[in-house]
Structures are given as structure tokens and as C-alpha cells.
Fold:
Amino acid sequence: MDTVRYQPRNLLITGGCGFIGSNFIRMLLQNFQDSLPEIRICNLDKLTYAGNPENLIEIESNHRYQMIQGDITDSTLVKHVLKDQQIDTVINFAAESHVDRSILDSTPFVQTNINGTQVLLDAARRENVKCFLQVSTDEVYGSLGDEGFFTEETPLAPNSPYSASKAAADLLVRSYCHTFDFPAIITRCSNNYGPYQFPEKLLPLFIANAQRDQSLPVYGDGKNIRDWIHVSDHCRGILAALQMGRAGEVYNFGGCCELQNIRLTELLLEILDKPKSLITYVEDRPGHDRRYAIDCSKAERELGWEPEVDFEFGLRETVAWYLSNQEWIDHVCSGEYREYYNRQYRQDS
Ligand code: NAD
Ligand code: TYD
Structure:
């Protein structure tokens, strides 16, 4: 394993009010105060339906933290933020992140995920940012059959408008490294679970529905496989890639925890002590990827990183978090989300 080769100081985090970004900021400011004593964080977030400043309420008054509401596609704003805050490091979490929404309308996915990344790259290059980390996904690799794992060498074959927009962004990052010697790193992670995830994604959606004795809409035959990783393991991986990764490289992260959706749903119902009769099979997602599985041996070897949270322990803890944060769920499930839910699950409602 390498030793730390890079210490971020003035960090721009985009999309820091979302699920993973808010967990990352909390981790830096609460768990890494001693090893990163100089760090200052500027969080640039548009506050879409998925962005919620409440996710960071306990660090709002931390003098190392500030939030700016704004869009990563706004090149004037991004340029000013980089200059004014003397940013040396950018971590780009900001994205439209939900596959089902990308099937309903891919426009915001192209705008934020592709155009937004391009704006950030150009501004960061002009301002001589020292490190740019692009937070990406295993979904850019497409779908696996029964055997095998995604490695960093697996060809990109995205299947949804979401994953296509993420792959396009990754290719832009790659091209800036190649053409301009731009110091960027790409990380690709599997499905995250944990606190503060917007309840449109499988786990928080099913927890919220089961709690209200509403049906759990399982797509297709329920045998699609995802590899689940606790968000804290992903966040540690991103920090490890930033501090120990090599510019121009890609690092995969996974939880070594493959599960069929139906098995996960049953496990959840067991934990919640709810009946299996809540499970409802609904029409499959168009183009639904069958299986994701990650080979993270490069991250283990080069970053000294491996997932630490035991899945069943993490799942129980996550369920407990959602159960004791009902107000948070009620709040984020208001307005726009209700309209989306009725549209997406009308066959089920
Ligand atoms: P999320 O949807 O919870 O949060 C996205 C955040 O980005 C929100 O706060 C939103 O307001 C903000 N945002 C959206 N458009 C913006 C714009 N134009 N300008 C500024 N801010 C904007 O997403 P997440 O699950 O936290 O995912 C974060 C990143 O990690 C994404 O890039 C996603 O592709 C990637 N990723 C997610 C997972 C997962 O399982 N959730 C797995 C691998 C990779
Ligand atoms: P999701 O959380 O949307 O993540 P992703 O599509 O990025 O992997 O979905 C996880 C899995 O759960 C995926 O195979 C689709 C499935 N799924 C359902 O069966 N029902 C649902 O209502 C949702 C949201 C997802």
C-alpha cells in the first residue's frame, strides 16, 4: 500500500446535500478532524428534489463548512467559486442519479451529468486545481451474466440513460487526463445503502412502504442482482482514492455482497417483522440490468481499502435509522416526489 501522497485543503464538493455527498462531508468533518486539520469545504448544490440541506444540519455552523446553492452547469458561478474559495480539490458528486427517472426523461441527466461535468473540468483546468475526483458508478460497465466481475478494464457498455450520461462524463474526464495532463481520478462504486438516501431508491422506498403496510413493488422476476456497499465504506474509498490514488486512474469499489432483489426484500421484511404478502411483482424496468458485481482488488492493492461494514449489521442499522427519522422521510416525500411516485408506480397504486 502507498502512503498518503495528497492532502486536500480547500475542497469543492458538488452535490453535497445528496445521499453520498452529505455522508462524505459529515465523515470528513466529524471523523477526520485530526488527520485533515486544515481542510475547508465548500458545498455547491442546486438543491434539486434529491438535495436536502437538512442532511447536514449538525455541521451547518462548523466554521470549516459553507454551502452555496447553485448549478454546476453555471460556468460563471463555478469559475467564481473556484477563484474566490481558492479551491485546490474538486469532488464531483452532483448528478441526477435515479435510473427510473432517466427513463421518464433523460434531459436533466444530460444537462447535469454531462454538461455539468464538462463545465467543472474546464473551470478546474483553468484554475489549476490540483486534484479532481469524479464520483462514478459500476453501471457504466453494463450488465453481467451469471459469472464474472467488473474490473477497471471492463469496456464501458451503459444501458440506461442514467448510466450513459455517467459514462459520457467519465470519458470526458479521461480525455482531459490524456489531452491536458489534467490530474483527475475516477471512482466507480456499486449500490450504496445507509442513512439519508432519497426514498425513491430500492431500500429506503421499501422501508418506507413496509412501515406504512403498503406494497413493495419488485420489478420483473426479482432476480436481478446488485452488490450492496455501506455508504461509509464508499466514502472512505473516495478519500483513499483522493489521498493515495494516481492521476488518470480508475478505482472500483464494491461491498462484496451480491444479493437478488427478492432476497433483499425478504430480509428487509424479516427485520421489520412485516409479512411477505406486502411483496408485489410489477412490470419490469425497461432495459433492466441483470447483475452487477465488482472486483475491487485494485483498490485493495493500491489504496489499502476494503469494505468493512458487515451487510446484515449495516442493514439493521440502516433500517433503525429510517424508523427513527420518520420526520425526515415525511419531509422529503412531499411535493414533487408524490407526483413522481404516482407516475412511476401507477400500475401499483
Ligand atoms: P443524490 O441524487 O442523492 O444526490 C445528488 C445531489 O446532486 C443532490 O444534492 C442534488 O441537489 C445535487 N445536484 C443535482 N443536479 C445538480 C446540479 N446541476 N448542480 C449542483 N448540484 C446538483 O445522489 P447520490 O446517490 O448521493 O449519488 C452521488 C453521486 O454518486 C452521483 O454522481 C452518482 O452517480 C454516484 N453514485 C451513486 C451510487 C448510489 O448507489 N447512490 C452508486 C455509485 C455512484
Ligand atoms: P435502485 O435502488 O433504483 O438502484 P439501481 O437501479 O441504480 O441499481 O434499484 C436497485 C434494484 O432494485 C434494481 O435492480 C431495480 C430494483 N427496484 C425494484 O425492484 N423496485 C423498485 O421500486 C425500485 C426503485 C428498484
In short: Residues 99, 191, 201-202, 205, 217-219, 224, 226, 261, 285 surround thymidine-5'-diphosphate (ligand 2) (CB under 6 Å). The mean pLDDT is 96. The longest strand covers residues 131-137. Residues 107-126 form the longest helix (20 residues).
